[in-house]
Design a protein that fits this description.
CATH topology of the largest domain: Nucleotidyltransferase, domain 5
Pfam family, one: DUF4817
Number of helices: 13
Radius of gyration: 25 Å
CATH architecture of the largest domain: 2-Layer Sandwich
Helix content: 40-55%
InterPro entries: DUF4817, RNaseH_sf
Number of domains: 3
CATH class of the largest domain: Alpha Beta
Shape: globular
GO molecular function, one term: nucleic acid binding
Order of helices and strands: HHHHHHEHEEEEEEHEHEHHHH
Protein name: DUF4817 domain-containing protein
């Protein structure tokens, strides 16, 4: 984090005015510069280094002794370019070890000098000719009918394989242009089938579709039972206002006659689905919060400790869902509306800039 001269001067002055108390300096800094409760502020080491620099030299810059030799030379920039062209999937950590250049310098060379970006693999479905107009119309209708302050539960299922499916968040491909990289995985491995419903107020789930401790396919009977016995009970426990909206995709299990009749009765006028009150377009994971956020986020977390059993994997899923902050869910909800607007602007096309580029 770069701290300006104003930041440093304020901290040194506050340090002496507050009896050399680091905590009081940090509180004063937060108030002076209007920093949010969880926003970044100078830590103890930073403040003490600025005080020491002031007492030693009369200024607030950290004292640097001896000449500063930069490793960011034309020769090293070219070395990094060649190394990335040869191994674009190699991580920055490994690249820095191979080349003998610090990770910080590697990041600066890649971003500031080579102008490369880390792209992540995203699975999208090929759009059919009629899908473009359908996606555009659906996006327009949802934005027009859905109040900005509405509570919407976006629902979906996903498979988590014990072998560890493609880690869509951590898989990176460094390049100046988007490679549209694909990835293959084994066809069969032990897995769990997880259902969740995400809203800006919180997440309901996970619910695991299983019988006798084995994952089972999702059919209309199992789906309806889950809605009635799990989702609605959890919704009542959350104490959410009655006028909530419910979204689901057009999977056959979701849109069976009995299921749709029940959902229309429970969410009258507030069902977003194929053949719902507001139509949900087919082949549109780039618009669904569970697809563009939740599943990728979870798959970047649950395999970190290499779960060995299905129960370990399930426990990791539960724990990581519980740790997702409400503030993050609020940003996801806003991003959903932005994606609808971008879908309209692109006349129903997928959104490669949003989906593939990470920063």
């Amino acid at each position: 984090m770069f701290w300006s001269v104003e930041h440093r001067t304020f901290c040194v002055k506050a340090y002496f005015e507050n009896g050399r108390s680091i905590v009081r300096v940090q509180r004063a800094f937060r108030l002076r510069f209007n920093i949010a409760p969880r926003g970044r502020i100078p830590d103890r080491n930073c403040i003490l280094s600025w005080v020491n620099a002031f007492e030693t030299s009369g200024n607030v810059s950290t004292i640097r002794r001896g000449p500063q030799n930069s490793v960011i030379t034309p020769e090293n920039v070219e070395r990094v370019r060649v190394a990335i062209q040869q191994s674009p999937r190699r991580s920055i950590r490994k690249q820095s070890q191979v080349l003998g250049i610090s990770r910080r310098s590697m990041h600066r060379i890649i971003k500031e000098h080579l102008h490369m970006h880390p792209y992540k693999m995203v699975v999208v479905q090929e759009l059919k000719p009629r899908d473009y107009e359908a996606r555009q119309i659906a996006s327009e209708n949802i934005l027009a009918a859905l109040p900005r302050d509405a509570v919407v539960f976006f629902s979906d299922e996903a498979h988590f394989h014990l072998s560890g499916c493609v880690n869509k968040q951590n898989m990176r491909y460094w390049s100046e242009t988007n490679p549209r990289e694909l990835h293959q995985r084994p066809l069969h491995s032990d897995r769990v089938t997880v259902w969740c419903a995400l809203s800006k107020n919180g997440i309901i789930g996970p619910y695991f579709f299983e019988e006798n401790d084995r994952a089972v396919s999702v059919n209309s009977a199992r789906y309806l039972t889950m809605i009635q016995e799990f989702f609605l009970h959890a919704l009542d426990e959350m104490g959410v206002d009655e006028d909530v909206w419910f979204q689901q995709d057009g999977a056959t299990a979701h849109t069976a006659r009995r299921v749709m009749e029940f959902l229309r009765g429970r969410f009258p006028g507030r069902l977003i689905s194929l053949r719902g009150d507001l139509d949900w377009p087919a082949r549109s994971p780039d618009l669904a919060p569970c697809d563009f956020f939740l599943w990728g986020y979870l798959k970047s977390k649950v395999y970190n400790d290499r779960p060995r059993t299905i129960e370990d994997l399930k426990n990791n899923i539960r724990a990581n869902i519980a740790e997702i902050p409400v503030e993050m869910l609020g940003r996801v909800h806003e991003n959903f509306r932005k994606r609808l607007d971008q879908c309209i602007q692109s006349e129903g096309a997928h959104m490669p800039d949003t989906l593939f580029k990470t920063k």
